[in-house]
Amino acid sequence: VVERRAIALGLKTDTGPDRVPAFLAWAKERFAAAPASTATGEGLDAMRTLIFRNSGVVRVYTKKPGQAPDLSKPYTIREGATVLNVVEQIHKDFVNRLRYVRLWGSGRFEGQHAPLDHPVQDKDVVEIHLT
């Protein structure tokens, strides 16, 4: 069995606003759905959020020890990826030199040492300590 994610986007809602409730009634039974209009901009933020949430990707930020996290450039990685997968994505050689990783976000306590098999979640921050 192959699972595939699907979303339904109802565009041009400005041309037929009377059809939006019917679209939502049909689509929400089957898919994640969002109506939007590119002409007026209505619903575009909800559409972007819906697309990202259904993409199967999470954003992970990094920080250097003693500094604030760099929230401008996240690493993107598949849902279900672990702390070790993030370290490997940043640099393959880091795995051999890794001492420990601290985690903010999905850990039980902010800044705690994270096990390498801990699954990362969207907007987690990792701090990598090397030898």
Written overview of the protein:
It is a single chain. The chain is of the alpha/beta class. It folds into two domains: 7-53; 57-130, Roll (Ubiquitin-like (UB roll)). It is 24% helix and 31% strand. Strand 5 (98-104) and strand 6 form a beta hairpin.
Low-confidence stretches: none
Q: Count the helices. How many? A: 4
Strand pairing plus helix content: what structural class? alpha/beta
Total discrete domains = 2
The strand order across the widest sheet is 4-3-7-5-6
The H-and-E topology, N to C, reads as EHEHEEHHEEE
| Number of beta strands | 7
Task: Classify the beta-strand content into a percent band.
Answer: 25-35%
Query: What is the name of the CATH class of the largest domain?
Result: Alpha Beta
Distance N terminus to C terminus? 44 Å
Q: For the record, what is the CATH homologous superfamily label of the largest domain?
A: Beta-grasp domain
CATH topology of the largest domain: Ubiquitin-like (UB roll)
